[in-house]
């Protein structure tokens, strides 16, 4: 077969792939084109166009996103800063305006006219160099509820004094010596005794002084005056409210001036009591008027300070049991003079102040109590005593008893002591 194909001029090996012809001598331009490469069997989607090449990472442009700000937060901090600055400025202004000016050894004479308002007082003090800022001083007075009790007169004030020291001096009427009057009200004095002492010294008219005490609305020296009950049986509504103390006031002060000064001293002294004194008063169900009433009983009954809380406990215990107090001092108050010994007739006197005939406290105080007596009835000693009697041995003390039987024995002891003292 191969010989026949050869004779016919054919390829004796038709199955073989023809060999590539040698390149002609003429050069590469005459070189026949190679057939396109055949797609391999395992290649998928050979007919699809090739994907574009990925760009080189080294040629990528790196971009960063700028973070957005928080305008609301920044506004808050700015506003907060402004508030802090303003608050600090205000505080500094107040602090600087209320602090005392530079201290000085030379006192300044300052005149406070009668009826002068707190604002005018502040302006006068600022002009004198005693305070820094009259406006802040007047605001401070309002905050402290001060200024209404300033006494008229000429004062010697020293730059460097605190606001509290200035107010205390103006309230107390501590005017320049030489233009003042000075007097002392002993503890346990009644208003009648006070009027006698002041009139004998030539400071007041006794009748005008006692008449003024019948109208508490005329006075503003004490905050407690407004709570005095309107009782017809009160002998003197302001009895017990004129605090016993030594006073120095401007010469020529009126009866009203003197009463206001003593009333303001009551408030000042009550502020020296323990902070819970009003709570203690309310726990007993007392008003300030009843507190002063009970304290005045202790004041007139007791000489020794150590016995004040004990006698106060007897009063409290008898009130709890609704027993008549049977205190001799209430009878003495009705007599307007001290008797060495009360008679049976004295004990029968008809009056709401007679604690032998009437249970409970009398209508009002019977004298001006001391601060120690006021504190004693607020915080009495815890006892079961219901009776007491003076020892009459010269010690100015008492014998106390829980039962009436023991009280009778104490009376016998007291009488023996009295007889022995007379020998």
UniProtKB/TrEMBL annotation:
Family the UniProt entry places it in: Belongs to the transglycosylase MltG family.
Domain of life: Bacteria
Pfam families recorded: YceG
Compartments, record wording: Cell membrane
Catalysed reaction, written as an equation: a peptidoglycan chain = a peptidoglycan chain with N-acetyl-1,6-anhydromuramyl-[peptide] at the reducing end + a peptidoglycan chain with N-acetylglucosamine at the non-reducing end
GO BP, one annotated term: cell wall organization
Any one Gene Ontology molecular-function term assigned to this protein's record: lytic endotransglycosylase activity
Region described as Disordered: 1-64
Function, in words: Functions as a peptidoglycan terminase that cleaves nascent peptidoglycan strands endolytically to terminate their elongation.
Coiled coil: none
Residues of the site described as Important for catalytic activity: 301
Biased composition (Basic and acidic residues): 47-63
EC number: 4.2.2.29
Record membrane topology: Single-pass membrane protein
NCBIfam families (alphabetical): endolytic transglycosylase MltG (TIGR00247)
One term under GO cellular component: plasma membrane
Keywords, in A-Z order: Cell membrane, Cell wall biogenesis/degradation, Lyase, Membrane, Transmembrane, Transmembrane helix
Listed Low complexity bias regions: 20-29
Protein name, per record: Endolytic murein transglycosylase
InterPro entries (UniProt xref): MLTG-like (IPR003770)
Transmembrane segments: 73-95
Cross-referenced PANTHER family: ENDOLYTIC MUREIN TRANSGLYCOSYLASE
């Amino acid at each position: 077969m191969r010989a026949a194909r050869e004779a016919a001029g054919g390829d004796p090996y038709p199955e073989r792939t023809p060999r590539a012809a040698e390149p002609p001598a003429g050069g590469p331009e005459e070189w026949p084109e190679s057939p396109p490469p055949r797609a391999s069997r395992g290649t998928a989607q050979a007919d699809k166009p090739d994907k574009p090449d990925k760009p080189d990472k080294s040629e990528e442009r790196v971009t960063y996103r700028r973070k957005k700000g928080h305008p609301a937060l920044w506004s808050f901090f700015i506003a907060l800063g402004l508030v802090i600055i303003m608050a600090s400025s205000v505080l500094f202004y107040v602090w600087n305006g209320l602090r005392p000016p530079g201290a000085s050894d030379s006192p300044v004479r300052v005149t406070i006219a009668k009826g002068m308002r707190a604002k005018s007082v502040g302006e006068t003090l600022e002009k004198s160099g005693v305070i820094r800022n009259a406006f802040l001083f007047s605001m401070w007075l309002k905050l402290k509820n001060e200024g209404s009790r300033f006494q008229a007169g000429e004062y010697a004030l020293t730059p460097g004094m605190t606001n509290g020291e200035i107010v205390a001096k103006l309230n107390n009427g501590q005017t320049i010596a030489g233009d003042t009057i000075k007097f002392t009200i002993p503890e346990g004095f009644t208003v009648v005794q006070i009027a006698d002492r002041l009139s004998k010294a030539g400071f007041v008219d006794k009748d005008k002084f006692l008449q003024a005490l019948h109208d508490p609305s005329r006075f503003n020296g004490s905050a407690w005056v407004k709570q005095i009950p309107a009782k017809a049986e009160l002998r003197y509504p302001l009895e017990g409210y004129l605090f016993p103390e030594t006073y120095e006031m401007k010469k020529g002060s009126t009866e009203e001036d003197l009463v206001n000064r003593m009333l303001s001293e009551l408030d000042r002294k009550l502020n020296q009591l323990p902070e819970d004194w009003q709570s203690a008063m309310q726990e007993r169900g007392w008003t300030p008027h009843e507190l002063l009433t009970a304290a005045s009983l202790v004041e007139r009954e007791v000489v020794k300070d150590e016995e004040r809380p004990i006698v106060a406990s007897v009063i409290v215990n008898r009130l709890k049991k609704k027993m008549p107090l049977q205190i001799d001092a209430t009878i003495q108050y009705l007599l307007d003079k001290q008797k060495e010994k009360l008679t049976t007739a004295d004990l029968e006197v008809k009056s709401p102040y007679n604690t032998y005939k009437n249970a409970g406290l009398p209508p009002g105080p019977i004298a001006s109590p001391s601060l120690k007596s006021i504190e004693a009835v607020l915080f009495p000693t815890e006892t079961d005593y219901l009776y007491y009697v003076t020892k009459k041995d010269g010690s100015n003390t008492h014998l106390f008893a829980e039962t009436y039987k023991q009280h009778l024995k104490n009376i016998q002891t007291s009488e023996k002591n009295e007889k022995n003292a007379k020998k």
